[in-house]
Amino acid sequence: MSQHEEQHTQHSVGYGRYILIWLGLLAFTGITVTLAGIDLGRWVIITSLVIASIKSILVLNVFMHLKFEDKMFKIFVLVAVATLVIFISLTFFDYAFY
Amino acid sequence: MTTAAATHTHRDDVGSRMGMWLFLFTELILFGGLFIVYAVYRFKFPEQFQLAARELDTLVGTVNTIILLTSSLTVAMSITAIQQGKKHLSMMLIGMTIIFALAFLVNKYFEWSHKISIGIYPQSPELLNKPQGEILYFGLYYVMTGLHALHVIIGMVVLLFSMVFIATGKINQQSYVKLEAGGLYWHLVDIIWIFLFPLFYLIS
After folding, report:
1. B126 touches chain A (CB under 8 A)
2. Mutate to test the interface with A, among B13, B21, B31, B54 (most CBs of A within 10 A)
3. Mean per-residue pLDDT for B77-96?
4. Which residues of B touch A13 (CB under 8 A)?
5. Which member of A3, A45, A95 has the closest CB to residue B40?
6. Is the CB of residue A5 less than 8 Å away from at least one CB of chain B?
7. pLDDT digit string, tens, across residues B97-128
């Protein structure tokens, strides 16, 4: 049984790597707050969404172990996120172009 | 071989995690619907959204962001600890996560109380006098951060159970998928906040 469970045990991530990712997340938080302080006009929404996406990718890949999961997990996540993006962009066909 | 196969049917950690991820997708769609509403109204009332966002304290939002990011770190580390068989370290890290969650909620409590004390809450006469875009902004603010705070509370309960399960040995070095599922939920709550923070606090 113990031999078999080897298969179940997941890739273990060291503390150092987690702390590195955490520092990165804090740095990106600093950047997004600083950028919001500067008047970038309509670019603010784009920069803050790009930074939020980068932060999410870090959390998904390392904290949530997506990087070490089967390919199927990654496909699922892509499909879910793509669905949401399609919903949001199609909504704007109703509001932005009429 | 047959015993191995039998064990396998009883424990499928990959399947358990997959199930958790599928649940997380439903959460994504739940919040996604609200993000669509936000996107449309922000598109329709860009200036009023900016004006309304001035009422929010960027510092409080930033502190809460740091708290949640750190809580994600501690819950991720608690899984490494249990993988290494360090039961007490793992429990301590989960305990820290719960304390961070509490700190987040305390901040939220003071933030909401302040808003309410200056007359900004759904259906308040003060708010109804404001232009439509500002009313919508604060409506979305209360619904979205409120739903998020509810998730923080649920996450705390889930993590509390994980702690008890480690103490009783139900979660151990060989079997910790329950803790992984709790951690995944917690990270999702963190990701939602990663988007809520700039959309509500950083647009003025």
Report:
1. no
2. B21
3. 97
4. 76, 80
5. A95
6. yes
7. 999 999 999 999 999 999 999 999 998 999 99
The predicted-structure confidence for A34-93, as pLDDT tens digits, reads as follows: 998 887 777 888 899 999 999 999 999 999 999 999 999 999 999 999 999 999 888 888
pLDDT for the residue B193: 98
Domain that holds residue B89: 12-201
Nearest by CB: A32 against B83, B174, B198: B198
Q: What are phi and psi of B131, to 5 degrees?
A: -60, 160
Chain A nearest-CA distance from B67, in A, is: 10
Q: Which of B21, B29, B84 sits opposite A76 (nearest CB)?
A: B21
Position B61 in a domain: yes
Q: What long-range pairs does B135-142 form, CB within 8 A, spacing at least 24?
A: B136/B41, B136/B45, B137/B41, B137/B45, B137/B48, B137/B49, B137/B52, B137/B53, B138/B52, B138/B55, B140/B34, B140/B37, B140/B38, B140/B41, B141/B56, B141/B200, B142/B112
| Number of domains chain B is built from | 1
Give the domain ranges of chain A.
2-64, 69-98
Query: Is B6 within the bounds of a domain?
Result: no
CB spacing of A4 vs B40 below 8 angstroms: no
CATH number of the domain at B132, please: 1.20.120.80
Tokens of A95: 């509001």
- Report ipTM (2 d.p.): 0.90
Q: Which amino acid is it at B96?
A: M
The interface residues of chain B toward chain A in range 165-194, judged by CB-CB distance below 8 A, are 174, 180, 183-184, 187, 190-191, 194
- Assign B21 a pLDDT band (cuts: 50, 70, 90): very high
